[in-house]
Give the backbone structure.
Amino acid sequence: MKKFQLLPLTFALGLGLASMANAQSLTELYDFARAYDAPYQSAKAQYDANLYKADQAKASLMPTVNLSAGVTNTQLQIDAAAHDSLPASNTTKSYDTQTSGLNATQPLYRPSNYATYQQGVRTADLAQAQLEAAEQDLIVRVSQTYFDLLGAQDTLTFVQAQKVAVAEQLASAKRNFEVGTATITDTRDAQARYDLVIAQEIAADNDLRVKRLALDILVGKTNISPKPLASPVSLPALVPTDMSVWVQQGQDMHPTIKQSRIALEIAQLEIDKSYAGHKPTLDLNAGYNINRNINGTTISSTDSRTTATTIGLAFNLPLFAGMATQNRLRETLSLEEKARADLETTQRTVMQGTRAAYFGVVSGLGQVKALEAAEASSQSALDANKLGYQVGVKVNIDVLNSQSQLYQTKRDLAKARYDVLVGGLKLKQASGLLTANDLQGVNALLVK
């Protein structure tokens, strides 16, 4: 009989091992998401587009070369009236004109073009910062969704375990009532708690389905099975422990602050372009042009060909543009002030976010320690209440309450651990240091 009783347990263990063999780690799912996630792919395409746009700015410093060609047919009719002894006459003439040329211009001094080129360089840096922000956001989203799913699995597991425990307590209460050692109140308390756990199980199962769907959509795979945390769980310590270090790193490295700084530099270069509206320009021009007349021209009846080779300098000094340059300058000065204020706002926001993330990790580590102690205390309380119920000094509701407290503590402890791990990644994101390599440390805590 005992042999057959062990079969379901052996079968369940076999299924668990098979499921674990097919489970995916956090880094594997991040790689899937990096190749599939639409917001990240959009950011990557925008990054490539910004790089091409930055390269376009170089064109303003490079020479321009144009090749031209054309053919013109002219039908000329000359009518002459009679004059003195000359009779009236009518003459018709047709001739073709063929032109071709190669012309080049090299800017020598154009302050506005040079400012545009510098803006292009800053645009490339801006694109890099935007892509960094998108990568960090993807890391956090994958990690949060991963541990949300693990948390939903834990919740369902604990609720089902609680259901088994309450069912056993309900059966015990019924037996004791039948033999007269307990009142009907114990049975009704156990039945009410069992019905409540059934409702909790339905809600937990639905939440698990939703969390699994969210991860499937994020990584582009179905039937994802994330690896759980290895037991015993040893969470990494917070390093460095000084909050000011994290805050300073955020001010130096956060990609959003980088974007705001670059936006300010671009606004300052726009001022330089406005000032350039008062400055002269100097270009080098060169050309090679051929003009061929077939059947003559209006003043000649013979074929001709003209070849012209030119080289020279073109100087231009703006004198008055209807106050457009002055107003453009005032506009760019105001936009620079806006960019400076935006940078200050971003710095303050990042500082606040970094501090909040730091306090979250510190608080989370404290909660984990407190809940670990609470778990041990809750287990001891449950054991004591079970023993007291058996000897008659405790009632059934005491045991049921102890069971609920124990499983609630287990759920809270599992969630607190997940929150600490995700919070550590968010803290690095807030300080601008988060990279895909940081997932390796979290991945090392998972079941192999």
